[in-house]
Structures are given as structure tokens and as C-alpha cells.
Amino acid sequence: FATGPRQNNGIFYEIRTYDIKPAKMKEFLELANKHFHLRTAHSELVGFWYTDLGALNKVLHIWKYDNFAHRTAVRHALANDKDWQGKFISVVLPMMEKQHNEVAYLVPWCQLGKPPKEGGVYEWVTFQMKPGGPALWGEAFRAAINAHINTGYTRLIGVFHTEYGLLNRVHVLWWNESPDHRAAGRHSAHEDARVVAAVRDSVRFLESQQNVLLVPVQCSPLK
């Protein structure tokens, strides 16, 4: 994945996850919706969500950068943006318990997608694969993803392969009309022989898997 054409053009995505104090989650989201335009004035926000199932009191946002020099320039500008620092950062820092970030590339066979309409939910699935990289497990993993796409019950938004953070990690972002629509689709997929065969081949290389249900915040471009 990491030697495909999308890495060569320099574009990468920073995935940032914040743990918010439970008593401060509502206030944090209100401040984000009010002031996040100050942040998006500096660089492109792909999406911004809070967790609803699989994890609680977390927010996840994805940023797009042209290259590492672009990110460095943006971070420098943010540090000197008095409105951003004063109206948002200084206020929300005491609300946070932990911050985590990763840098990832879109896999070469995936373009960043959009949902067919607003109002659905997103599923963020993290696969920790065995060491060895895509040369070892890439084709089997791709076949498993495509098998789920072909069932038609879900929409693929993006597949991200980490470059900084835990390596051999792949994040897959799906969109569904509702949690119930997703559940019904999953049950149907589990009875599809093509899906079962593709997943069985891929899990040979899997060390762990985690998924969370995400709800987009008001200021998220992906809703």
C-alpha cells in the first residue's frame, strides 16, 4: 500500500483522536461547532466525529495535507493564531484526558469517497495486521474489503494505511444509513459464501481488530 501512487504525490492524512473528560463532552462539542472554522481556515478537514458505540467520550478527526512541509507550515500558523489559541485551544485543553495522532496514506486502490446522503452513521474499523506489510497480506486484505463492498449494504469511504504510529495497521471507514441497516447487512454478509471465503483468507494475517460507531459533529464535512 505505502509504495503506491498516492504516496508518491505526497498527500497524507493525519488521524487525531482525543479522549475527553466525560463531564465535559457536551461542552467540548459545542465549542468545536462554534469555533472550528478557525481551524479549518488553515487546512482541509476530511471529517470530525464522536464515538457512540465501541468507545465512549472520544472524538476523531482526519486532516489532509499535501506533504510534510505543508503540515509544518500549518502547525506553525496555528501556534500563532491568537483567535484559535484563545477561543478554542486554551479552553478545551483542560477538558482533554489524552491525545493521539497517526499519519496514514490512502491505499493505492482506494479513493476517498463520500456518502450518498447526509444523516447516516460511520463505522471506523482498525485492523492490526501481522508484520511484513502489504507484500505479505495486502492482496488478501483487499479481497476481504471488496467482498463486503460487493454485498451493497455499506459504502466505503476510505482505507488508510499507517506510516507513523503502529505499523501494519489499516483503518477502514464505512458509511451506513443507520446502525440497524448496518446490522442487517452484516448478518446477510456473514451468510454470503464469497464474503466468508475472503475473510477467512485475510484473517490469517490479522492480529487484532476493533471497530467503533462514529457520529459526525455539526462542523464535519462528512455528515
From TrEMBL:
<dbReference type="GO" id="GO:0005739">
    <property type="term" value="C:mitochondrion"/>
</dbReference>
<dbReference type="InterPro" id="IPR012577">
    <property type="entry name" value="NIPSNAP"/>
</dbReference>
<feature type="domain" description="NIPSNAP">
    <location>
        <begin position="122"/>
        <end position="221"/>
    </location>
</feature>
<dbReference type="GO" id="GO:0000423">
    <property type="term" value="P:mitophagy"/>
</dbReference>
<dbReference type="Pfam" id="PF07978">
    <property type="entry name" value="NIPSNAP"/>
</dbReference>
<dbReference type="InterPro" id="IPR011008">
    <property type="entry name" value="Dimeric_a/b-barrel"/>
</dbReference>
<comment type="similarity">
    <text>Belongs to the NipSnap family.</text>
</comment>
<feature type="domain" description="NIPSNAP">
    <location>
        <begin position="13"/>
        <end position="111"/>
    </location>
</feature>
<dbReference type="InterPro" id="IPR051557">
    <property type="entry name" value="NipSnap_domain"/>
</dbReference>
<protein>
    <submittedName>
        <fullName>NPS3A protein</fullName>
    </submittedName>
</protein>
